[in-house]
Amino acid sequence: MRQRRFLGLIGSTAAAGPPVVPPAAVGNSVQGEEQDFPLIFANVPAAGPQKTMALGVAALLVFAAAAIAPFASIQLGRVDAFIPVLQTALSIADLLTAALLFAQYSIQPQRALLAVASGYVFSSLFAFLQTLTFPGGYAPAGLIGDGSNSAAWIYVLWHTMFPAAILVYAFSKDAIGFVDPPGKTKANIIITVASVLATIAVLTWIVTTKTEYIPIFYTNDVNVQTRFGNRVNLALWLWGATALAVLFARRRTVLDLWLMVTLLACMPNFLVAIIGSSVRFTIGWYAARGFVLVSSCILLTVLIIETMLLYSRLASAVTLQRREHTNRLLTVDAVTRAIAHELNSPLGAIALNANTALCQLRASPRELEGIEDILSDIEADSHRAAAIISSLREITTTANDGGVQTSAENAAQRALRLLKNDLQINQISVTAELQGNLPEVQIDGEKLQQVLLNLIRNAIDAMRSSPAGARQLRLGASFDGQSTVLLSIQDSGCGISADDRKRIFDPFFTTKPDGMGLGLAISSALVERSGGKLRLVKSESDGSIFELAIPAREQRPTASLS
User: Which of 120, 293, 353, 537 has minimal CB crowding within 10 Å?
Assistant: First the structure.
């Protein structure tokens, strides 16, 4: 028995027992099927090409840092416009990155995304504030602050808050229950931004107006740091390395991968000050600021590229969907024309005979001769019309699947993949127990998928009133060893009452306030036309179990050679 566990949020692999796989990765295990279509960039699993590209960028950064290190202490000319230009560009890049991450959160509200976006808001605003305090930037002593130490402290806050936000993301991204309801996304974004702005305002006020109460980085020369500054650079490097190590240990997605590269790109900024030179306007100092700008643009570039790729795939999917919809409309139109053409003849005859009978009955005196023949003709034409409708219904709805066969395991995995967003939003933990090497079943794959989608949606609706931590869905697939493949869907909802169980498969019967009562009836009919059976196995206060029994493909004995 092959057992997989899918979490409504993002899972981590357990030390023992079934492996835990996030819904975003559900589709990746399907052999020979189309690739998973992730809703957001943060859920895209890190594939081989992405890992290779990230490793290449990281190697290039390390090589560049090693090449610059021997020349780090060489003094260059002072360029006052360097910091304002570079950090304004950096601030804009970080702000754009934060906006894209907030957009990702609005699509799929995982709180961990708020942490990353907050980190980029911190980085953007602290970078801009440092340009206002930097000596020689916009004024000889800076526009705000004490003219020497405020800029350094804002730089410390900048590179403290960003790794802190990444740590919060790393520890919360795999936690169950850290998904917000869709209706609260806008409010949560506003609250997050307001909290970040308030924090920045308080910290900036302290380091610009209360510098006499905090340690100093510069004494007489604003270009040479004190030993305290070197120790702070070491602490900042260790802080960033800690965030990198934690994220490396919990890496899973493309977002994790490129955040690690971003943290790595910041490392030379501190190493230059620790090992090479802490003097301003040296080669090392200029290069370190360049590394910070590169780190700021890494995730923004990847986000833009991945968004373009996802948009391209979405556009292709929409085009195919519209084409399919058009084909269905053409099919419906053709069937309608066929019905109208076939029914016009008997209905016209019925109308003519009825009109003739009425004329004879309204005559004075009444002409009863031939009335019996006219009524007999009307009866015959009505039976003929009924036969036409029945034959058309046979053609359009009850066509036997014939030799069509499909994999029950693949259909189950596709259904989970299509509904993974609903499972995540509703915080449902999904366990898939799919027996390996199942024989193919004698039913059309699209029909089986639609039946499973309907049953899983019903299970999601049944668990809405359950506590978030108790919402569990189990999807099983097994072979009875003879001629039937069994698919079961079990939920942990409130169950179905005894009176409703008898009518649950009746057309137009529903237990939902906004339901039509057709889903289970149509699903049952589709399965029965393929020779299978859909039944309610159990329904109690702790949940319900629906079971599909579908005929398996005949196992042909292999001839032996003697």
Answer: 537
